[in-house]
Amino acid sequence: MSIVIAVDGTAASGKGTLAKKLAAHYGFAHLDSGALYRLTALAVLEAKGDPSAEADAVRGARTIDLSRAGDPAIRTDVVGQAASQVAAIPAVRAALLDFQKSFLAHPPGGSLGAVMDGRDIGTVIAPDATAKLYVDARPDLRAHRRWLELKSMGIARDEAGLLAELMARDAADKARPVSPLKQAPDAALLDTSDLGIEPAFAEALRLVEPKVRPQLEGMLKDRHRG
Ligand code: CDP
Fold it and tell me: I need a labelling partner for 35 at 20 to 30 A (CA). Which of 7, 11, 63, 161 fits?
């Protein structure tokens, strides 16, 4: 059994940055599950399909091109909104399930663990995860962070529009019947409103370390005994 750190939370709460830093710290693999829904949405939009139509969305999920996970085209708010639409369709979530489960069961590169961020990792994808975080922050701060992120990618947006879009997307993600965004009962809440990246990471580490470290030590010992 590999180690799993599940990082769920609201849009632009900082979960992706924390997940990446946790993965680097422990030498674990990292998967941004949101990219799978964004890639699905991009495939639908590029095929001139309707993100809320099941047949179009499922076709999109089956044809995602993982090599485009780093493509800035998936980071726009148009794709984000379409991602939230495709993500509400159960057949889309089912089509993306095996990939996520096998990533966690066999993390690439022979890593002893994986960090996955998203909306339903600790609740649905990995309910038995070693450690779980639920990341949130005040909406105005999240909108500002997203504005800065988009600006650094050369995408100009007004902050008020971004705030409205983030709040609408959070509301839709929390209200949908299938895999809604919610804090798992055993997830630790991390509010990053008043924390910069490094203090937020230190806090994330403080929360997960007591669960991750003993399992990691045990696995390293086993490997050594070989
Ligand atoms: O980066 P940001 O937090 O804005 O969004 P994201 O993590 O890239 O996710 C985009 C959308 O995909 C979300 O609004 C969710 O509707 C959906 N999603 C999901 O349903 N389940 C996941 N595990 C990850 C994302």
Answer: 161
What is the pLDDT, as a whole number, of residue 45?
97
Distance between CA atoms of 54 and 8, rounded to whole angstroms? 25
CA of 221 from ligand 1 middle (Å) equals 37
CATH homologous superfamily, domain 3-225: P-loop containing nucleotide triphosphate hydrolases (3.40.50.300)
153-180 pLDDT per residue, tens: 888 889 999 999 999 999 999 999 999 9
Q: How far is CA 179 from CA 84, 90, 111, 118, 184, in A?
A: 12, 9, 27, 11, 11
Q: Token pair for residue 97?
A: 């399930």
**Ligand 1 atom with minimal separation from the 100 CA:** 23
- Ligand 1: residue of 30, 33, 136 to mutate (most ligand atoms within 8 A of CB) is 33
pLDDT at 156: 86
Q: Is the pLDDT of residue 226 over 80?
A: no
Ligand 1 within 6 A of CB of 120:
yes
Minimal-distance CA residue to ligand 1 atom 17: 84
Q: In what order do the strands lie in the sheet with 29-32?
A: 29-32, 113-118, 3-9, 131-136, 188-191
